[in-house]
């Protein structure tokens, strides 16, 4: 695999080698900012301590499984080399993030930046990702090695942070002084100090959650890829307050606590497979095999937990598009007055939320959000589109026709 076959963002590939060499290369020359490679060993999405950060000034992980072997010059390029013994990685480490940090400028001024994996035994290239769209970032996650069902995989990421080390810290729990853009300069040895009490290690900083993103009419979309939400699972939650304000909105005999909304998803995979995940017909989906979407259950009240869908982002390359929609199953004739809130929470990255407070028609089906795979980049777009089914047409068929899914529908019960 060469630069012309560079992986797209979000693409992944199996890694069957027991050990790999990771090369992080970039062009060198006058005015090009200094840069170096860093490996972050993650447990539950965070580093456990500063020792889980491997780079030039801390070149060997305590387990011995990850080593920074320095850099070398090849023509007009500088290449940092990391060695990873995948068989020796501690069981508690589920991901190894491969990042680069720059000093003296953003990665827009660092041409030819790439990450490349080779088999440590034979030198065969396994994967390569070339960064071609960096702008203001001073810290960049190029890729990651991660475990899935006992198998190591590599994913191309290409996610950057304009605030550099602070961005890495917020995302992965790295202390600001644990990652240094360049190797520290040597200093004269100070005089021997007088004996002093032992220094206690600094307490680990509390995890910092990325700021929530709120989608509106004026700002209707966000890239999950750029937010870092391209791995693990994503929880889609719908909650509501079941109290329609006007009698014409309430079905006869329905009390305020009897409003039942159903969270659903139409999906289309890249292989052409199409389908629906919903409580109706017990089509709850599956998380570890197609469609990689699962409905947790059927909430009848919308209270504290609401309804939840889970999307397996480790298989994001399999998705073409996912339409999240909601239907009024019983208790109301419209979404007006229900004050529903939709929140998408990736395992990694910022939560995304928007509100459904704008319904002015007797709608019983609403398209909430459209997730599309655009060249390996996952984009979420707020739809908040209220649809009114024609007489005798189901809410599901109505949203299908509005978005051109082309499925065949039969009556279902739950």
UniProtKB/TrEMBL annotation:
Residues 181-201 are annotated as: Disordered. It comes from Streptantibioticus parmotrematis. Residues 187-201 have a biased composition (Pro residues). It comes from the Bacteria. This is TerD domain-containing protein. Residues 6-172 form the TerD domain. Belongs to the CAPAB/TerDEXZ family.
């Amino acid at each position: 695999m060469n630069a012309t076959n560079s992986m797209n963002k979000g693409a992944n590939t199996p890694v069957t080698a027991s050990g790999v060499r990771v090369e992080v290369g970039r062009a060198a020359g006058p005015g090009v900012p200094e840069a170096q490679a860093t490996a972050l060993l993650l447990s539950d999405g965070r580093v456990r301590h500063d020792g889980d950060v491997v780079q030039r000034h801390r070149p060997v992980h305590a387990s011995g499984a990850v080593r920074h072997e320095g850099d070398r010059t090849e023509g007009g390029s500088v290449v940092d080399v990391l060695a990873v013994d995948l068989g020796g990685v501690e069981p508690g480490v589920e991901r190894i993030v491969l990042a680069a940090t720059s000093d003296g400028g953003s990665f827009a001024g660092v041409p030819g930046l790439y990450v490349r994996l080779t088999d440590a035994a034979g030198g065969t290239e396994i994967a390569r990702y070339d960064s071609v769209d960096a702008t203001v970032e001073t810290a960049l996650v190029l890729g990651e090695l991660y475990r899935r069902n006992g198998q190591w995989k590599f994913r191309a990421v290409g996610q950057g942070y304009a605030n550099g080390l602070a961005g890495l810290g917020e995302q992965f729990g790295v202390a600001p002084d644990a990652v240094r853009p360049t190797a520290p300069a040597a200093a004269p040895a100070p005089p021997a100090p007088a004996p002093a009490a032992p220094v206690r290690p600094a307490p680990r900083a509390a995890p910092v959650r990325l700021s929530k993103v709120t989608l509106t009419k004026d700002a209707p979309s966000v890239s999950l890829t750029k937010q870092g939400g391209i791995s693990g699972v994503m929880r889609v939650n719908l909650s509501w307050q079941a109290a329609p304000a006007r009698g014409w909105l309430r079905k006869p005999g329905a009390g305020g606590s009897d409003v039942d909304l159903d969270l659903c998803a139409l999906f289309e995979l890249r292989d052409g497979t199409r389908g629906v995940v919903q409580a109706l017909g017990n089509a709850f989906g599956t998380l570890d095999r197609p469609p990689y979407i699962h409905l947790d259950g059927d909430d009848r009240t919308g209270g504290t937990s609401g309804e939840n869908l889970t999307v397996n982002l480790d298989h994001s390359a399999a998705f073409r598009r996912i339409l999240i929609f909601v239907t009024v199953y019983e208790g109301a004739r419209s979404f007006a007055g229900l004050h529903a809130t939709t929140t998408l929470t990736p395992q990694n990255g910022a939560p995304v939320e928007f509100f459904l407070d704008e319904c002015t028609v007797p709608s019983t089906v609403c398209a909430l959000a459209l997730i599309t795979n655009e060249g390996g980049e996952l984009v979420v777009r707020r739809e908040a589109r209220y649809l009114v089914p024609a007489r005798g047409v189901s809410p599901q068929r109505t949203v299908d026709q509005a978005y051109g899914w082309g499925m065949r529908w039969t009556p279902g019960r739950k």
